[in-house]
Amino acid sequence: MEEAAAAEVVVVTPGEVLGKASQVRAGRGAYVAPHNNLVYASLTGFRRTLSPPPNSPDQRPTVEVTGHKAHGAVPEPGSVVIARVTRVTARVASADIMCVGPKSVREKFTGSISTWAGGSIFGEEEVSLAIKNMNGDKAPGSYGFDIAFLPTMLRGGQSRGEVAVGLSCKRQQDVRATEIDKVDMHLSFRPGDIIRAVVLSLGDARAYYLSTAKNELGVVSAESTAGETMVPISWTEMQCPLTGQIEQRKVAKVGG
Amino acid sequence: MAGKPGTTPTTYSPSPTTQKTRRPIFNENDVDWVRPDGRGFHQCRPAFFRTGAVNAASGSAYAEFGNTKVIVSVFGPRESKKAMMYSDIGRLNCSVSHTTFATPVRGQGSEHKDFSSMLHKSLEGAIILETFPKTTVDVFALVLESGGSDLPVVISCASLALADAGILMHDLVASVSLSCLGKNLVIDPILEEESYQDGGLLITCMPSRYEVTQLTVTGEWSTPKINEGMQLCLDACSKLAKIMRSCLKEATSTSQE
């Protein structure tokens, strides 16, 4: 844990000069002006100087400004969020993001979990490799066109995600063009569930792209149809303590 | 139509005004007159700022310059409306409105419909939009009482509210306006002086970086007067920025205790 080199409490406001770019590095809450190479603050708060890690070639200390008020959080790629599921269809589940990391948001953000958005199940490289390795002599899938069409589709501008809907297996040797997507959203989430997910990317204009593809991600708390909070009994099942009914969910591994 | 003799003439000329003309506040030939509120020509009104006035907003500020009272709330960064297209930088949305009791005559505030877009122009250069992609920052300004120089006070107050909300900015934005009355330049004009002005100048600048984000010139100006006016305004902006910074620092240290 690096110690703060400066012990005194200095309040800075946006636009105040924190140092020269040749002597300090700009951390969070600070930026470098390109025309005069000075480091300015961009937030109101307390200025802290962090010493550089001993092995790095850049031995300048980092100066950062921490806001004094608890400002509302904004989802960023890579952050773990808590969300409430609002709508579930066969391929996409929409959720309202309520917390980003440990902070709650002031107003909700919309997120969506889908089986093929941006690589939540398949990565772009996997899909490209798989398509390249497919021969054109397999039987057409239920879309009505055979595999030889796929490279044409890609050149025509279809996103790889749309093509990946028809691919159901991760391994490049075993790719079949079918229309069945093995993951059914209704077996993983229901509206009203509280889930923990990770933000994959900023997504599109309507929603952030989320993913629950890890063990510690998934449903954290859910209510059964009887109205009771359910108890997880396995990685894919939860049970209502009142009625004993078992419902399918993608359960998150909490704790441990 | 051919008029019958004795009817009204077909041409119109304005009749001389019979109502009493307003007495101007200064004499055209006078170089040394006193402003209605007793200030010097190059003296601004005392400024009062307070942040954190509105609890519901992410950030807010209240400003009082003599009789001009303005309150600004900032919401965000929050989700853009679904209808908007994806944007990889943030969006700024500004709205300036007047209360019905803001002006001496009720309901006259709607004459300044362009304040919202002018506020947008002055703030967008100062906010680092790349730090909040896809989201929107909403700035709502309400003029509670209009006592002259409304837009500069709104701009300065909005920049304080943005700093209070924790939006990353290049610098605070300070704004001052100037009026040309006859041969004199008066800074920070009140409502009465603004109505008599021959020309008006509004400067918005980022004082620490000495960069101007907005310059508005109206009316008739000669080049030396513009230069002199700009210099006066920039000096006043840097002094105003000091007051704004001390207000922010005070608010930060009182909230820490």
UniProtKB/TrEMBL annotation, chain A:
Residues 171-202 form the Exosome complex component CSL4 C-terminal domain. It is found in: Nucleus, Nucleolus. Its main location: nucleus. InterPro entries: Csl4 (IPR039771), EXOSC1_C (IPR019495), Exosome_cplx_N_dom (IPR025721), NA-bd_OB-fold (IPR012340). SUPFAM superfamilies: Nucleic acid-binding proteins, Ribosomal L27 protein-like. Residues 11-47 form the Exosome complex component N-terminal domain. GO terms for biological process: RNA processing. Signal peptide: none annotated. Keywords: Cytoplasm, Exosome. This is Exosome complex component CSL4. The lineage of its organism: Eukaryota, Viridiplantae, Streptophyta, Embryophyta, Tracheophyta.
